Amino acid sequence: MRNLPLLTLFSTLGLYLAFLLPHLLWIDSDGVWVGQEHLWSDWPWHLAMMRQLADGVWTHPLIAGEPLHYPFAMALLSAGLLKLGASVTAAFLFPILPLWFLLLAGMHRFWTRVFTNPWLALLPIFLFFFAAGPGGFRWLADIKAQGVGALLLPPQEYGRALDEWGYQWYAGNFLVGMLLPQRAFLPGMTLTIWLLCGLQTATTRRQWAVIGLGAGILPIVHMHSLIALVTFGTALLWPPRARWREWGLALLPGALLAAVLYLIFLRPSTPYPNFVRLQIGYEAKFLLDWPLMWWRFWGMALPVTLCGLFFTPKGPVRAVIAAAGVLFLLANLILFQPIAWDNSKVFLWAYFGFSGAMASLLAHFAKRGIPGKLITATLAFSLMLTGAAELIRLQRTDRNRYQVVSTTDRILAESLREQTAPGAIFLTGMDIANAPLWAGRPIFLGFGGWMANFSYDHHPRETALKKMFSGAPDAPELLRKWHIDYVFIGPGERTSWGANEAWYEAHYPLLMKLGDRSVYSVK
User: Fold this and answer.
1) Residues 199 and 246 placed together within one structural domain of the fold
2) pLDDT tens digit sequence for 48-107
3) Which residues contact 7 (CB under 8 A, 6 or more apart)?
4) Are both 203 and 292 inside the same structural domain?
5) Nearest Cα to 46, choosing from 23, 22, 70?
6) Is residue 169 domain-shared with residue 314, that is, in the same domain?
7) Does 398 map to a domain?
């Protein structure tokens, strides 16, 4: 069957996520939960953005009053489903599954055109999704020490290179660390892969124009994928063969669209100092630490990639690997965002391209009799072991569950949606999540760890937040200056921010109270 390789992909990686998806976000009698740590840190504000867009509020959920300045296409899609009557969880989760199958189909089409072999095209896809570095050998040690329990429930994330060595590398597996928690990445990668497929086959100006318009909307889908599209696209179109003028004219409307969308929706109003800066060696502490760092991040991937170059046929495979090399080099020289971990968005695309070289080497040895097959199996095992541990652990949401908000906060949030206007600004603590955020109401200042990547210097707001909570002499003036409508005081606000509830009780009416959570109207 011609489609058997693609069906194989769908029946493995496709069904893997289809089974997992309903268990990633759920609501029960104890509150709102997610099934993985990275989802707990990223999804609360994405959920808030979805609910705000459904209410027609286009300000930043975590920096009330500021423009959104974030690729919003995925959130807008979920907001549309919410408006059509879908539940919060359904609206948020449903778009992921079709995008996932489209991504798998696009990857298979892309690598089939690169290798001209639909079965070989499966190999770089599995190498990519099972990537996670060398930590899996620690998993084997844990299995030996703890038995089958460690096999069925890996006791830790083996793809991190954070706590032990001090690198800002929070996850080695791309599905675990990026494609699921970072909501813009999945649609961005999916669209980019299909645009690259189009670049491989387009022959008419109309086809080029459609590709250009697809590229033109990438700024509101995912900016890093636009960088990847330009890099891989240039490599696939090289050498020019005197067609650059034709391509340029066809792609020009898309380029203009991308520029307009960036200027309207993404350009920071107050650029963050040194948002993009030179940082040679990425997170390496010194020169000799650089290869050790990449061993800790990716294990055998780079050595296998380098060896694979000698067995890679001429043509599009080499172009893809060359583009990946350019991205890898750039991300080792430049921090594209202030938080070093976010360069992993570029490194993901580099690994995607390097998977072609790795697949070429494995395919070469697989044809060399029993010894060659043993080498292939050994290399594949070393490249995919850690990813297997990470994907098994990701499925175990029954044991890895993280609370977004409690039932008390959820009930309070629904009351806030009924009794406050969309766009009403709440003063809260700078927690990952709270009742006003779950309600889809913009908060004065959210989690500080995200602010640099939003290109926002949050320290003046944080100073004002402390004064307003404390009931300082200038608190009433600050509440008016920042257009605060309501003040939320819960356990976190009392413990971490010294909220002076007695002062608010004396000066402002209580809107509602549930348990140890209070909301004061300050307008």
Assistant:
1) yes
2) 999 999 999 999 999 999 999 899 999 999 999 999 999 999 999 999 999 999 999 999
3) 1
4) yes
5) 70
6) yes
7) no
